[in-house]
């Protein structure tokens, strides 16, 4: 009886230790703003495509390749919107659209990573925009981790995209004129192991 109790205790301790070892493989990464871009594309009367990007962004990533888990949090500054046309930027920042004075940030938070082999294939989370939160899944078009020869640290990143219905967040401007509801989001992200 004592032997079996000791064996069970030893197994439980081994399980706790192995769980701790698995958790220890999760690493913290900081988003590299010089290699991270958040952009959007929306059709313009079926003739061309309007594009813009947010120049200021920050965030963190927790990533465990072996455990195939991760967490990400990205915040973009809506006042940093850049379409390449200053009058259009002012309209994008106005109450008609992103309402940057009232809602200065957009946030994406995720704790669900999906994998194809050892590569991240998609990241599912919650997008908060104009004080409304809805689920969004960003699909990876490419993903890789590498040892940066300049930083002497591991860097992980990829290109991710999703198409969202902007009216879910109350971004309704122009729908009555024929502007599409759907917006393509493209997120290029690289994060440096800390």
Automatic annotation (TrEMBL):
Residues 1-24 form the signal peptide. Pfam families: YceI. Residues 28-192 form the Lipid/polyisoprenoid-binding YceI-like domain. Coiled coil: none annotated. The keyword Signal applies. Keywords: Signal. SMART domains: YceI. Gene3D superfamilies: Lipid/polyisoprenoid-binding, YceI-like. The keyword Signal applies. This is Polyisoprenoid-binding protein YceI. It comes from Acidovorax soli.
């Amino acid at each position: 009886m004592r032997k079996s109790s000791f064996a069970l205790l030893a197994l439980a301790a081994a399980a706790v230790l192995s769980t701790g070892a698995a958790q220890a493989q999760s690493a913290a990464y900081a988003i590299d703003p010089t290699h991270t871009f958040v952009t959007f594309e929306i059709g313009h009367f079926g003739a061309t495509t309007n594009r813009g990007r947010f120049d200021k962004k920050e965030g963190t990533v927790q990533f465990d390749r072996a455990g195939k888990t991760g967490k990400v949090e990205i915040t973009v500054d809506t006042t940093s919107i850049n379409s390449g046309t200053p009058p259009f930027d002012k309209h994008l920042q106005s109450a008609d659209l992103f309402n940057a004075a009232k809602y200065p940030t957009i946030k994406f938070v995720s704790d669900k990573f999906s994998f194809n082999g050892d590569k991240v294939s998609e990241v599912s989370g919650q997008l908060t925009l104009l004080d409304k939160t809805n689920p969004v899944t960003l699909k990876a078009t490419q993903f890789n981790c590498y040892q940066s020869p300049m930083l002497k640290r591991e860097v992980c990143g990829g290109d991710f995209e999703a198409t969202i219905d902007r009216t879910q967040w109350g971004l309704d401007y122009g729908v009555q004129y024929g502007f599409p509801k759907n917006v393509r989001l493209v997120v290029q992200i690289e994060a440096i192991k800390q």
